[in-house]
Design a protein that fits this description.
5-stranded mixed sheet, 8-stranded mixed sheet, 40% helix, alpha+beta
Length: 264
């Protein structure tokens, strides 16, 4: 049944509200690109504005919940058992370059466990959502991870460490181990959508390191509720603490994990 609970409706409404502003700003970016002005300040303003919109909507609907956002850090609420994890614009570099592949990411943690998730791409109007124990969906369609069982038939997603991030040598070792054995590796620039696409069966798997909890939280739930498996790069469950992830279906996940271990 793809009817959203009251909680999911609150999260989806907050995402859609923030998306209106982002879509407007995204439309203006084309002009800025042509004018060769520096659009970076414009994008960080869009980011802040989107987070403010989400913060206000969630705080109004669920007063007292704590809020951990990419822009404002942790705001402790009176209810210590619930924390929102929010990335108002995942895929900032894409946004900045007028590439229509970015997302709003909202997850709810209850006593440390992620129980609800929304990942929304405003450009395609795809709203990925999940609630613990109730399955994963895109708009009103049920999601299942892909059924492929062989690495050589699989397309995997990853992220490449960029300016200011270490880990290049490690990444190249991992890419070397993986890329010779798969049908393709993609780097689309949004961890949130990479995970949503694993849940949707578009990618067969995904791995990345050096991520933040708000990049990962929603996607972890989407993947597991779509019948997949997600662990950290060591095969454990410290994804949010460690910032590394390997995700895929039950057959592909261990095969990716083997390749990542072989790269050490």
């Amino acid at each position: 049944m793809s009817t959203q609970s009251a909680l999911l409706k609150v999260m989806s409404d907050a995402a859609r509200k923030a998306a209106r502003g982002l879509n407007r700003d995204f439309g203006e970016l084309g002009e800025l690109q042509v004018a060769k002005k520096a659009p970076a300040d414009f994008v960080s303003a869009a980011d802040l504005k989107a987070e403010q919109t989400i913060f206000e909507a969630l705080s109004k609907a669920r007063p007292g919940y704590s809020f951990l956002g990419e822009e404002r850090g942790l705001i402790e609420g009176t209810d210590k058992t619930h924390t929102w994890l929010v990335d108002p614009l995942d895929g900032t570099t894409n946004f900045l370059h007028a590439i229509p592949h970015f997302a709003i990411n909202i997850a709810l943690q209850r006593e440390g466990a992620v129980v609800a998730a929304v990942t929304y791409n405003p450009v395609t109007n795809e709203l990925f959502w999940a609630e613990k124990g109730k399955g994963a969906f895109v708009n009103d369609k049920r999601l299942r991870v892909a059924a492929r069982t062989k690495l050589d038939e699989s397309v995997l997603a990853t992220g490449i460490p960029f300016l200011g991030h270490g880990g290049h040598a490690q990444f190249l070792k991992e890419l070397h181990q993986v890329s010779q054995r798969v049908a393709g590796v993609r780097r689309f620039g949004s961890a949130a959508l990479d995970l949503a696409w694993v849940a949707a069966g578009r990618y067969d798997g995904y791995w990345e390191r050096d991520l933040k909890s708000w990049d990962l939280a929603a996607g972890l739930l989407l993947v597991t509720e779509a019948g997949g498996r997600a662990t950290d790069a060591d095969g454990g469950d410290l994804m949010l603490e460690q910032g590394s992830i390997i995700a895929g279906n039950l057959e592909i996940h261990p095969l990716i994990l083997d390749r990542i271990r072989a790269a050490k």
